[in-house]
Design a protein that fits this description.
Blueprint: E1 3-7, H1 11-21, E2 27-31, H2 34-44, E3 48-52, H3 60-68, E4 75-79, H4 84-92, E5 97-100, H5 105-120, E6 133-135, E7 138-141, E8 146-149, E9 152-154, H6 158-168, E10 175-176, H7 177-183, H8 193-207, E11 217-220, E12 224-227
Parallel strand pairs: 1-2, 1-3, 3-4, 4-5
Antiparallel strand pairs: 6-7, 7-8, 8-9, 10-12, 11-12
Helix pairs in contact: 2-3, 4-8, 6-8, 7-8
Length: 230
């Protein structure tokens, strides 16, 4: 049984979400502020977190940053305003998906299911007959879903790993944002182009010596991104 943690200060919303999602055979706990939420992440060890962006005190962005220091659990960010800047900010600190309030409970359930599926499916985009991929200081192991730089294990989210694997397995090939969205099977989540930019930025911070002057994932202006041939 998958465990879900809902962190939101809106008591009515929490009640409605818990009531609806329990019909899907999830074990669910809730927290009404960021501090309580971080404590439950450690004690409850959820398989997925639904996190409100706007909360008093410790907001969703700070909570997400803290979680991502040592945990790659899928995070769906809830935002009331739905402005692109809010969504991109959430993705930049490590959220995997977002949902704009007000939302339908049916859509939330679909997002939860999709994110849980991606986090537990190791063969999402793994190229056939590939054991390891080595580029310079980077080593990518598709079977174990691990990335090493100078033999040091890096911590990537499921989406970040899939994105890196897709690009690194086809060096020199330029991928448009639309193609990356399609290849990563995220169209069902209605992600917009700039979400790819946010995930690329996160990957660069983890694999590049200088994220602003990348040597691995480079921007092809007006088109998209490619993994630089070594």
């Amino acid at each position: 049984m998958n465990k879900l943690l809902l962190i939101d200060d809106d008591a009515r919303l929490v009640k409605n979400v818990l009531t609806y999602l329990k019909d899907f055979d999830y074990l669910i706990e809730s927290a009404f502020n960021g501090i309580e939420g971080l404590e439950k992440v450690k004690s409850f060890n959820p398989d997925l977190i639904i996190l409100d962006l706007m909360m008093p005190g410790l907001d969703g962005l700070e909570v997400c940053r803290e979680i991502r220091k040592d945990n790659q659990v899928p995070i769906i960010m809830l935002t009331a305003r739905g402005e692109e800047s809010d969504v991109v900010s959430g993705l930049e600190v490590g959220a995997d998906d977002y949902l704009t309030k007000p939302f339908s409970l049916r859509e939330l359930a679909a997002r939860v299911k999709a994110n849980l599926r991606r986090s537990t499916t190791s063969a999402t985009i793994t190229p056939p007959k590939v054991t390891t991929i080595t580029h310079g200081e980077l080593t990518i192991d598709p079977s174990k879903r691990e990335v090493y730089k100078n033999r040091k294990l890096l911590t990537l989210t499921s989406t970040e790993f899939n994105l890196l694997l897709l690009l690194a397995s086809q060096p020199g090939i330029v991928f448009s944002r639309d193609r990356l969205l399609e290849e990563l099977r995220n169209r069902e989540l209605e992600l917009f182009d700039r979400s790819i930019d946010a995930h690329i930025s996160n990957v660069r911070k983890k694999i590049e010596d200088s994220p602003k002057n990348p040597r691995y994932i480079v921007t092809v202006w007006g088109t998209g991104y490619k993994f630089q041939e070594q």
